[in-house]
Amino acid sequence: MNILFLTMVCINDIKSHGIYTDLMREFVAHGDKPYIVTPCEKKNGQQTTFSDCDNYGLLKVRVGNLFGVGIIEKGISTVLLNHQFNRAINTCLHDVNFNLILYSTPPITLVDTIIAQKKRGQATTYLLLKDIFPQNAVDLGMMQTTGVKSLIYRYFKRKENKLYAISDHIGCMSQANVDYVLRHNPEIAPDKVEICPNSIEPQDLRLTEDQRMKIRKKYDIPLDATVFVYGGNLGKPQGIPFVIDCLKTQLDNQQAYFLIVGDGTEYGKLETFFNETKPQNMQLMKRLPKNDYDRMIAACDVGLIFLDHRFTIPNFPSRLLSYMQAGLPVLACTDPETDAGKVIVDGGFGWWCESNDVKAFNEIIEDSCDADLSAKGEKSFSRLQECYVSHNCAAIILRWLGGEDR
């Protein structure tokens, strides 16, 4: 079976680990051939290229700049994606008959490409819903639903509705996502929406005590403190003002050490805070190479998740999986709409508070410094193996095409 996979994640091969590359390897293991269509930004200076790699195909499409640029340039590039992807597929993969078209959000602007490719071979279409747009932009004050400025919102809302309509099946990250989609889109048949969670091929990234100590020394992380780490994007969705408010209250806590690793549009706010306060029990770092990042995360004690309290959509951050495979308990500070905190608490591997409650955050920090983190970490890793494995995700998708019995 030939699978067309459309993604905004830059993929160079399927050997690397991630929620999408791990899924692609599962399809290959089933005897299917995925054709991955991935962007190559203009700033990289490369043209559109196709590589036939025996058991999968990789089509890298030259597109406008999408990341690390202003909102206007990003918006224009996003709108142009549909034409660029469809043209590249028609040029490079015109002789391939697709049985399944798989795609993730963001973006929603590839809908016409999906329609065109579906008509070409009558393929089954499956949406991996990782982002509910444009409502998330409305929540963060980046779009308006009324007045003249609502034109942009209405344009993207039509694209979203069209995307849901063309999708034969919609895989959501959690039950809260399923409930949200059906509640706000009553025209969607309930039986075409299901849970297909963020999943990976788990690696055991847990470290021995000696390994942990060596890595802590390498990065100048205290050996005797409880280390709380946040790794990932530092943008508006993370609610950075709340993060800073929490850090301010922890400046004198000698039991806890806070490590923030990442980059994004709000990094400057954190950098200003660190420059002004010069905290002794905190460290701010830019992104690291993946292997170094994974090992440093595993040398910490508790993983942190932050989501802006204004969200009315139920996000489910994929960075949770990186903490789980490192065997870390997790503290999630989120809006009340997502069920990520419920999953963590019910699974017995962490804590949750609302991301507008600094007092609750402080109480959890105090409690977790005295908790049995090793036991919670074991539950974290065990829960990953039970619920978030890419093999299971592939089975959910493939059952609509005959599953493993094909």
Written description of the protein model:
The protein is of the alpha/beta class and 406 residues long. The protein folds into 2 domains: 2-201 and 389-405, Rossmann fold (3-Layer(aba) Sandwich); 209-387, Glycogen Phosphorylase B (Rossmann fold, 3-Layer(aba) Sandwich), CATH 3.40.50. Helices cover 41% and strands 19% of the residues. The strands form 2 sheets. An 8-stranded mixed beta sheet has the order 3-4-2-1-5-6-7-8, sandwiched between helices. Strand 3 and strand 4 (57-63) form a beta hairpin. The longest helix has 22 residues, at 71-92. The chain is globular. The relative contact order is 0.11.
Give short descriptive properties of this protein:
15 helices, 406 residues, 2 domains, alpha/beta, six-stranded parallel beta sheet, Rossmann fold, eight-stranded mixed beta sheet
Summarize the amount of helix as a percent range. Answer: 40-55%
Mean pLDDT, rounded to whole units? 93
- Structural domains: how many: 2
Strand order of the largest sheet: 3-4-2-1-5-6-7-8
Instruction: Indicate the low-confidence ranges by residue numbers.
Output: none
Looking at the structure, what is the overall shape?
globular
- Listing every helix as H and every strand as E from the N terminus to the C terminus, the arrangement reads EHEEEHEHEHHEHEHEHEHEHEHEHEHHH
Assign the CATH class of the largest domain: Alpha Beta
